[in-house]
Amino acid sequence: MKAILAILVAVLFALFFVAIRAGLEWGIDRSARRRRLRIGRERREPAFIRVEALRKLRDWKPYGHIADVIAAVGVRMTPEAFAVVSLLLGAAGAALGALLFPSLRSVLLLALMLGLIPYCWLRIRLVNRQMATRLEFLPAMELFYQCYLVTGRRHIRTALQKTVEERRLPGEVQAVFEQLYRHLCVGGDDEESLRRFALSVGNVWADYFCSIVKVALTEGNDVSDNLRELVDDMRKTRLEDQAERNKLLEIRIANFTPALFLLLFLGINFRMNPESSYLYYVADPAGRSMLLQAVAMMFGSFLMGLYLSRRRL
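Given the sequence above, the corresponding structure tokens read:
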């Protein structure tokens, strides 16, 4: 175990070194690019190689998924920084597991759970935003439809601007529409912006709305009839929307129930027999492993709850 601990500590320091080096290289490369822009010189070959490697990394599916979730929840963090934080937490979990638990399986289990904490945090924030915008998406669509009719039925960006400037939407929905309008006005990838908007709202109506907006942006057609049909369909299924929100709330409550029962069980044992409970649950490595496996099962049920929360209307 001492050899494993030494290896894990070495890996942890290596990750810190890599993170610091990456930050320094990023700062140096940014300064060099500014100098090259000022004097009009062409980009050097190593910088081109780094840009090509970064482009290939962004084409990787997990990278795109993490980038979409980060943008959907409005967190100011790059996927690279997210990966570094996850790796550092995983290495810290492995080192802590080597100190507390006797088996390699427990070490890997603790490292996996700590490494997944940043992603779980992102998913929790995303589910919270989806639940906050789910019931308010219909009033937002009604307001957007009115603004679209007022602005001449052909300018989606102008309708979005008017919808945002009205300031008649609740906080989360207002933030989501402002983010969509800002991304569409920047001149970047419209499809990516619409995909992240649909992910922020998290229902099938957002997908339909993004499809309509995409057609209007690419072809310039009048989509007022499509928007009216979308609003009418959403009005008809308002009660089903409330039922779906209640299901998501039930899932979230059920996620924390096992943890409450575990704390209640441990509290009763420590209350009735504190000395024996300490020896069995804390001093004994087998008892610590048992508690870790219980926490791992609850963590798995929590991940399952997050997965079920992705169900759409």
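The CA atoms of residues 212 and 223 lie 7 Å apart. Try to locate this feature in the token string yourself.
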